[in-house]
Write a structure and sequence with these properties.
Oligomer: homodimer
Helix content of chain A: 40-55%
Keywords (chains A, B): Amino-acid biosynthesis, Branched-chain amino acid biosynthesis, Cytoplasm, Leucine biosynthesis, Magnesium, Manganese, Metal-binding, NAD, Oxidoreductase
Structural class of chain A: alpha/beta
Largest interface: A-B, 70 and 70 residues
Shape of chain A: globular
CATH class of the largest domain in chain A: Alpha Beta
Radius of gyration of chain A: 20 Å
Number of helices of chain A: 11
Enzyme class (chains A, B): oxidoreductase
Main location (chains A, B): cytoplasm
Number of domains of chain A: 2
Bound molecules: 3-isopropylmalic acid
Pathway (chains A, B): Amino-acid biosynthesis; L-leucine biosynthesis; L-leucine from 3-methyl-2-oxobutanoate: step 3/4
CATH superfamily of the largest domain in chain A: Isopropylmalate Dehydrogenase
CATH topology of the largest domain in chain A: Isopropylmalate Dehydrogenase
Strand order of the largest sheet of chain A: 2-1-3-12-11-4-5-10-8-9
Order of helices and strands of chain A: EHEHHEHEEEEHEHEHEHEEHHH
Largest sheet of chain A: 10 strands, mixed
Distance between the termini of chain A: 15 Å
CATH architecture of the largest domain in chain A: 3-Layer(aba) Sandwich
GO biological process, one term (chains A, B): L-leucine biosynthetic process
Number of strands of chain A: 12
Strand content of chain A: 15-25%
Chain lengths: 349, 349
């Protein structure tokens, strides 16, 4: 291929290990770009804890609009213990996801035989969680009264709409349809959260009629965590709400080789705004700046980015390079940059 | 001991495997009762799916008041696929927990060496989750508009009060103080659910000042699920909200010998109403009525019941009998009644 196409990337390295893993993801992207005849033109945004301490800003409107002008966003990690919890998460990360309408938060889980799992007998794990990204308990529609007094009351409102649920459920069915096992599991808690839960259940039942080949089942979120450790191989596509998706994808990452390998894509399927690609892991401030972080999740997120931009071969090259690297891991410690170098080299073929 | 004291028990066998496991729990209770000079006077309540189909009732006020007149409640399991999801859970189980102010939902997890775990290297697991039982997303303060139309909106409101959070946090600290490791972990999601999460965090920080010996830490719920599979031995006492507690206690049960062993106590520590004891597992309709269910969780819940009533020796006898039974499990299939018989016999000494 030599299309010589240029893609613009907004890069938000963020906090903690974010900058280190982002550097490696960009290294790998550049390696495959050259080979697949594309160029990634990058704009880096200084957002996160440092910026907040310096200016009090999390994501000014002008920068949000500037980011919006790109083809895709690559993000490292957001969150820092020196900033009040929630400030950067709500004011930056979730603001991006919500404003850019990233309603499909895609998180694949796969067990690489050589990596091992904390599970004794994980079986063949290869599933993807389609986590709703713009509704649910994440909307920020809460409040508090009489804060700091014995009469304090704090609420959090989960907002769920037919509009929001149907579009992500359709996306999940389409993904299940494209996979060999053609299975979809709805995860919710409709025996307690009856209003939201029944909306989700009714929507899945309705859309299922259009996908007669798909086997559909339902699990309460508590039961889903059990199966994720006793029989994770049963899952193919999971569709779930924003909060349940957050919880089960960390668990899914933990059972399948660890959070160091878990990639994610915040997708706007309608392409009315750029999609955003980031590792599932957090900013891990305890190991930040020490070249101890595994950049693989960030690199795999870059593969998802290529895929989203239609660079199927580049995506496959990155994934193959990661798989090869993982399969030859000996347990010997490597720096973040060494892992990035090794994968970039392999991606070049 | 020969106090010859009589305790009144309200028994709600419920749905699915509930009646079978409850029969065994009562068998074991009667066995130890005789030996410890107490009598359990039982009133059985026909509540659950059968009753709802027959009369449309879940928990009439008169029966709730009758149940309230007892010293303790023993419950099997609630929920049935022939009844709209949520009807029995909200109308019966949660109605009992909320009306009788069961604000401490206690769920111990322990790995018995002989039982094994889906984890390859679980380590020494012995922790207890103190799950809040009367607030959070479980309050039922949701609603839906334009149901069944493309404009449907469904909300769920999580309600959290200083009153409700402080009392359960105090209970958790007192439990941590009584344990050798003296460690307490708050699990929440205060980087997203900032109003509720900060109330929880501030409350734990404030109460911690009165317990200088306790080591306190905080984990987001997603990170907590990771540690529950990578390093569950790190936990001692976990305190968390109603929904997060639901999720992580199923996971905790799964990693420590399975849901067949997980007991729970719904405690009203102020003793203004009877506390309720039930296995963590659900009604498992797929195996109901087949003598396939493991009654151990129900039996261990009966031990928690004895403990709550001050029958410390009876509780210890049941626990010892269960431990002995578990340690000699060979993997050969036994009926529900056979397991109950074996444990009852051992409990007699
Ligand atoms: C950092 C945090 C706000 C975020 C989330 O809860 O979505 C993270 O846990 C994730 O899963 O991407
Ligand atoms: C049956 C259901 C309502 C209940 C809950 O969610 O609390 C159960 O899962 C439990 O953990 O006791």
């Amino acid at each position: 291929m030599s299309t010589n196409k240029t893609f613009t990337l907004a890069v938000v390295p963020g906090d903690g290990i974010g900058p280190e893993v982002t550097t490696e993801a960009l290294k790998v992207l550049d390696a495959v770009a050259a080979q697949h005849g594309v160029t990634f033109e990058r704009t880096e945004y200084d957002l996160g804890a440092r910026r907040w301490h310096a200016t009090g800003e999390t994501l000014p409107d002008a920068e949000l609009e500037s980011i919006r002008g790109h083809d895709a966003i690559l993000l490292g990690a957001i969150g820092d213990p020196t900033v009040p919890s929630g400030t950067l998460e709500r004011g930056l990360l979730l603001k991006l996801r919500f404003t850019l309408d990233h309603y499909v938060n895609l998180r694949p889980s796969k067990i690489y035989p050589s990596v091992g799992s904390p599970l004794a007998n994980p079986g063949e794990v290869d599933f993807v969680v389609v986590r709703e990204g713009t509704e649910g308990p994440y909307v920020g529609n809460g409040g508090a009264l009489r804060v700091g007094t014995p009469a304090e009351i704090a609420t959090e409102v989960s907002v769920n709409t037919a509009y929001g649920v149907e579009r992500v459920v359709r996306d999940a069915f389409a993904r299940a349809q494209a996979r060999p096992r053609k299975k979809l599991t709805l995860v919710h808690k409709n025996n307690v959260l009856v209003y939201a839960g029944h909306l989700w259940k009714r929507t899945v039942d309705a859309v299922a009629k259009e996908f007669p080949e798909i086997t559909v089942d339902y699990l309460h979120v508590d039961a889903a965590t059990i199966f994720l450790v006793t029989d994770p191989a049963r899952f193919d596509v999971i569709v779930t709400d924003n909060l349940f998706g957050d919880i089960i994808t960390d668990l899914a990452a933990a059972i399948s080789g660890g959070i160091g390998l878990a990639a994610s894509a915040n997708i706007n399927p309608d392409r009315t705004a750029p999609s955003m690609f980031e590792p599932v892991h957090g900013s891990a401030p305890d190991i930040a700046g020490q070249q101890k972080a595994d950049p693989t999740a960030a690199i795999l997120s870059a593969a998802l980015l290529c895929d989203h931009l239609g660079l199927t071969e580049a995506a496959a090259a990155i994934e193959a390079a990661v798989t090869a690297d993982i399969e030859e891991r000996t347990g010997a410690a490597r720096t973040t940059a060494e892992i990035g170098d090794a994968i970039a080299k392999r991606a070049l073929g």
